[in-house]
Design brief:
27% of the residues lie in helices and 27% in strands. The protein is an alpha/beta fold. Helix 2 packs across helix 3, helix 5 packs across helix 6 and helix 8 packs across helix 9. The protein is globular and about 65 Å long. The chain starts with a strand and ends with a helix.
Length: 456
């Protein structure tokens, strides 16, 4: 069974909506160049013709979103698998090349350090095609292993997660239906997350491929860059971002009302109701939050300002077992054990109670790092902060520490504020003040990075 991107069989829209994919501005490059969906298909075939026939894996390091998308589909068209690393560290690249023999590298800029593997730089023709010229088909088996992603490693070593084409495709169809992205009307995605991450892959790569959504190819980082990217969209922009980027936008003092943003979608870390309310006020649009993981993809959502309950995507449900909950249905090919504690209602709504690995027991009392972090970050004056268990894995927890970004606050002020919200046994000792937390590209914190900062 093949998924034929030429025929748009997956689009749940009418012919008028389908034809909008053939406009010249399906993708908008950073330099203002506009690319149609037809041109994309030709670029895929042109790149695929240059790739090795006998390889099994391609380490896709492309940073420009259009380059990544063309490379991603070209690799799948060759019946090969995209390796999507958790970061761009040279050591990670070398480890993946050793783990996955017969691998080559795809990039869109020269690499400073090159691991021992063939390197193919993605260079696409700048000349546009005539719209009247038909474009070649792109048929990909639906059960093809399209990508191997890796968990963020927040609580340990990253784990490989296999994703076939039909699972990626089905996930974004559910997302599009949940947020109304499959309705008629021009929309363009502006994403601050890398395409190698599950959230970025689904919501800035697969959404444009499968649904009626355009996209901006660059990845804006600073608030002014994000604002300019939103204003560059020809229709209602959809901002795909993280709490850390959203907080930077809110604190920037820039005007966001005139950006023609129609929706904000956030994921990768918990979004507080306070931050969501500020974003809705400044942007003038609803802020929606996606819940999921690399293993499951997106499985639920909520409008953060409506409360702390989540609603599963259509067809997805949770079943209790001895270790917590297992989710199944929807786009999930196999049931998946949840790493979070859930409180599930019969109507498909649920609350998050923290991760299994977050549970801390001190002096006979229990708490979760998830809840402690929520209390810490809701304190006025705290810009960012995280509790950490300094004990080595497998060792007994004797005390907690916290690392905080809170300029203008004294240690005593922060300790007194925390004492109003948490049990004294969980008050952090030591309490370390820093200029910034060591967050990765998607705003996540690893225990390894936090412990290293605490030791330093």
């Amino acid at each position: 069974m093949h998924q034929d991107l030429l025929n748009f069989e997956t689009l749940s829209v009418n012919e008028k909506a389908r034809s909008s994919l053939f406009t010249e501005d399906w993708c908008i490059r950073e330099n203002g160049t506009k690319i149609s969906f037809q041109q994309h298909r030709r670029d895929v075939h042109a790149l695929a013709a240059t790739l090795p026939d006998n390889a099994r894996f391609a380490l896709n390091l492309c940073q420009d979103r259009y380059h990544f998308l063309v490379a991603f589909v070209a690799v799948a068209l060759k019946r090969q698998t995209n390796l999507l690393p958790p970061n761009r560290a040279l050591g990670v690249q070398r480890e993946l090349i050793q783990q996955y023999p017969n691998c080559y590298i795809l990039c869109d800029a020269p690499l400073a350090d090159v691991p021992e593997a063939p390197v193919f730089e993605v260079k696409l023709p700048g000349k546009k095609i005539n719209r009247a010229i038909s474009s070649p088909d792109i048929g990909i088996p639906r059960d093809h292993l399209a990508a191997i992603l890796f968990t963020s490693g927040t609580s340990g070593k990253p784990v490989a997660v296999h994703k076939c084409w039909k699972e990626l495709e089905a996930e974004v169809q559910l997302t599009a239906a949940r947020f109304g992205l499959n309705r008629i009307g021009k929309r363009h995605l502006v994403a601050t997350v890398p395409p190698q991450h599950m959230f970025g892959l689904a919501n800035s790569i697969m959404l444009p491929l499968v649904c009626n959504v355009g996209f901006i190819s660059n990845r804006p980082f600073f608030p002014e860059d994000i604002r300019l990217a939103l204003k560059a969209t020809p229709g209602g922009a959809v901002l795909v971002t993280t709490p850390i980027h959203l907080k930077a936008c809110i604190n920037s003092g820039l005007n966001w009302i005139d950006c023609d943003c129609s929706l904000i979608i956030s994921a990768t870390a918990p979004l507080s109701q306070k931050l969501a309310a500020s974003a809705e006020e400044q942007f003038g649009v609803p802020v929606k939050e996606i819940y999921g993981s690399t293993e499951t993809g997106a499985i639920a959502s909520r409008r953060t300002t409506d409360g702390d309950e989540w609603l599963f995507y259509s067809g997805i449900s949770a079943q209790p077992n001895a270790d917590g909950y297992v989710v199944s249905g929807g786009h999930l090919i196999n049931p998946c054990r949840m790493s979070d504690h859930l409180q599930v209602r019969s109507d498909g709504r649920f609350r998050l109670l923290g991760r299994h690995s977050d549970m801390i027991k001190l002096a006979g009392k229990r708490a979760s790092l998830f809840e402690l972090n929520q209390k810490l970050n809701q304190i006025d004056g705290v810009i960012d902060g995280s509790f950490i268990d300094p004990a080595a894995p497998g060792r007994e927890t004797r005390r907690l520490a916290a690392i905080v970004v809170a300029p203008g606050m004294s240690r005593k002020e922060l300790q007194n504020a925390l004492a109003e919200w948490i049990d004294p046994v969980f008050l952090p000792r030591p309490l370390l003040f820093v200029d910034a937390l060591p967050r990765n590209e998607t705003g996540k914190l690893t225990q390894q990075a936090l412990r290293a900062l605490l030791k330093s």
